[in-house]
Amino acid sequence: MSQPSRPVLLALCAVPVAGLLAAAALAPLPFSVAKPGMTADVLGENGGKPVITLSGDGVKARKTSGELRMTTIVATGPDATVRLGDVVGGWFATDEAVMPKDSVYPVGDTSQEIRDYNADQMKQSQDDATEAARAFLGKSADDLDAKLRLAEVGGPSAGLMFTLGIIDKYEGNGAGGDLTGGRKIAGTGTIDEEGKVGAVGGVPLKTQAAKRDGASVFLVPAAECGDAKSELPEGLRLIPVKTLSGAVGELKALESGGKVSSC
Asked: What residue stretch is flagged as signal peptide (predicted)?
């Protein structure tokens, strides 16, 4: 019996390989594909109401100029199916990022569980922002309270911008004027009650969202400078921050023409 020729053997081998590749292309993968999300001015309004409302004994809110924009990313949901084609496309796209699903959704297996978790994180972030602002201003809970409204946004990454917004709106904050200097300033970073700024992830996509919505300056947790520089949009200035007081100091220096830190 004659043996199959080499071209025939190669063709026969190619059949199972092609089948494996086709299966791999269709198989769901444990990744999420993220894109730049919405931004929101914490000094402005959301749904027709102020994002930040101050109250307390003798508290007066001052009229501000400029903007302090918190930034977000939007990712495929925990129930979404991400396949090889999506991952390959995300790797080559400048406005997308492929991230392990566990890093995007560390808790919960369903969309509702994720929403509940993110809502809890946002509430804690707002509470910490209020405490950090009180500590910076030297006020107690009786002296100053803040109500924060920002619908359909979850997670802790707006903490820094919330805190700066409370300080900027507070009459008698000692800033000597607007923290923004009339600029559109965006940023990201968690905040704790002691005013420490923490890393958040997804920074390159957030810088793109900031530039898209008109920001010229971006406050970034110092630990994420490298990530922020990797795909920095042209014309967007990075300012690294580690603490709330440091962030306020950098904004004052920016306004006065002083020395401002860079990544």
From this structure: 1-27
Q: Which range marks the domain in which residue 170 is found? A: 36-73+110-256
Tens digits of residue pLDDT in 192-244: 999 999 999 899 999 999 999 999 999 999 999 999 998 899 999 999 999 99
- Tally of structural domains, the chain: 1
- Who contacts 7 (Cβ-Cβ below 8 Å, separation ≥6)? none
Q: Are strands 184-187 and 217-221 parallel, antiparallel or unpaired?
A: parallel
Are 133 and 144 in contact by the 8 Å Cβ rule? The answer is yes
In sequence order, the β-bridge partners of residue 238 are: 218
179 and 170 in contact (C-beta within 8 Å)?
no
Does the pTM surpass 0.90? The reply is no
The rounded distance, in Å, linking the Cα atoms of 233 and 220 is: 14
Q: Say if 65 falls within a structural domain.
A: yes
Nearest-10 Cα torsion for 236, 33, 31, 26:
-150
